[in-house]
Design goal:
single chain, mainly beta, six-stranded mixed β-sheet, five-stranded mixed β-sheet, 2 helices, 14% helix, 44% strand
Length: 154
């Protein structure tokens, strides 16, 4: 378990479009540099492509629309592989900044959480920078639902 006796949970901190996001490490399988991707025909714009890792095909998602950020026009350079219920997808970020323990008392409600439950909380770090705390399973579910809808509709 990645929680301390104080109830703190260890989070991976990543950056996209100049904004900081955290994911509980319990939902992050691993972090990798962005590999060369295979295009996926008729894929929605969020799906950058896929790659093979140890015999498994991993879809790579640009999370901008899910995270409510403007596309910076730059190519991400690092992947956070999320795993939920035996399935895996990779979220593309600009960079990983490290890991941090986040205590429940440090969390503020996110104003968009009712419409986007994966944007669960906000946290102001010790250097007064805002971090959006993500609910890994909810984000994974939203990504899968969006991509499944896009493939069914396409």
């Amino acid at each position: 378990m990645h929680a301390s006796s104080s109830g703190s949970v260890v989070h991976l901190i990543a950056q996209r479009a100049g904004q900081r996001f955290s994911l509980p490490v319990l939902t992050v399988r691993e972090v990798l540099p962005l590999p060369e991707l295979e295009p996926v025909p008729l894929a929605p714009p969020e799906l950058l492509g896929s790659f093979q890792l140890r015999g498994e095909i991993i879809p790579v998602v640009r999370p901008d629309s899910f995270l409510d950020v403007e596309d910076p026009g730059t190519r991400p350079s690092v992947l956070a592989l999320l795993q939920d219920r035996g399935a895996t997808c990779a979220l593309a970020f600009d960079r990983v900044l490290g890991v941090i323990a986040i205590a429940p008392g440090d969390l503020l409600p996110h104003p968009l959480a009712t419409r986007r439950p994966w944007l669960s909380h906000l946290r102001v770090d010790p250097r007064h920078q805002l971090v959006t705390v993500l609910d890994g399973p909810a984000l994974f579910g939203a990504v899968v639902d969006q991509l499944h809808f896009a493939t069914v509709a396409g």
